[in-house]
Amino acid sequence: MAIPAPDLPPSPIVPSIDLQADGVRHGHLRLPYSRDDSAWGSVMIPICVIANGEGPTALLTGANHGDEYEGPIALYELARTLRPQDVTGRVIILPAMNYPAFEAGTRTSPIDKGNLNRSFPGRPDGTPTQKIADYVTRALVPLADVVLDFHSGGKTLDFVPFAAAHRLPDGRQEAACKAAVEAFGAPYSMTMLEIDAVGMFDTTVEEMGKVFVTTELAGGGTASARTVEIARRGVNDLLVHAGVMRGAVERRETRWLDMPSGDCFAFSEEAGLVAFRVDLGEPVREGDVLAEISPISRTGAAPFTVRAAMDGILAARHFPGLVKPGDCVAVTAQIVG
Ligand SMILES: [Zn+2]
């Protein structure tokens, strides 16, 4: 059960701005963090609220993982440019949700090694990362009708660009999430299977009954002009779809992908130098060699072979040139629409 118990102590996080009033406000979530270089110091997490009268609320989050950049780029820009008169209701923007990780350029927080997207629903009396998760869960998600959480592959994965929803027990909620994914209009739309959904923001938001969209927009610890444009247009059209912005959703062609089982994921059992035989987006057949992993400590040894367990396309791959045992090397996804 991801929804937190009602008898938890209050969050130590204090917003520096009014989250309710109309207008544009830029401020911070101040998370007290006592440490060697600042006894009464704080982590200052940027937040922006743009509100205009009655209407739905969208919560937009980037840098849940600190080394994923399309979301923060699109969301800092949106916070700079979106005007109240463009909005009906409210947009809450957290462009760098795990700010310590984002500032360090790392997936997890340098303060406590916390992986924010494995820390939900969080704890008000936990680590700084758990406190961020708790505040978002108890103070921000309840305000929202729709939540968009940007991800990319970070430094160690790369993806074909997609927005995603999950299979949900409530068919109507799943349909609403998928309609929002289609409005985002990435080149691919994914029915996403998680390796381990426990502790994810996704799971918490979905269990709270909200419309939730996540993304994987490329990776490698950077962002390209193409993938930033996908993020920029995606968030705009999702806000239109949600009724928070006026206008018409510009329908872009998207291909639906599915991850029907754990057979999608191919893991390495060896360490070595990875040579991909297929690039992202290319078609694969069951049994095809996706990659070969060669030992680097000597010449002459046979490589470990990673094969596709189903027909589809290569949807994700390990990004660095060397892999370790247990690394996810490749993800195959079925084309379903
Ligand atoms: Zn991520």
UniProtKB/TrEMBL annotation:
Keyword Metal-binding: yes
Listed cofactors: Zn(2+)
Succinylglutamate desuccinylase/Aspartoacylase catalytic domain ranges (all copies): 55-241
Keyword tags: Hydrolase, Metal-binding, Zinc
Pfam families documented for this protein: AstE_AspA_cat (PF24827)
Gene3D superfamilies documented for this protein: Zn peptidases (3.40.630.10)
GO molecular function, one term: hydrolase activity, acting on carbon-nitrogen (but not peptide) bonds, in linear amides
Keyword Lipoprotein appears in the UniProt entry: no
Name used for this protein in its record: N-alpha-acetyl diaminobutyric acid deacetylase DoeB
Source organism (scientific name): Salinarimonas ramus
Biological classification of the source: Bacteria, Pseudomonadati, Pseudomonadota, Alphaproteobacteria, Hyphomicrobiales
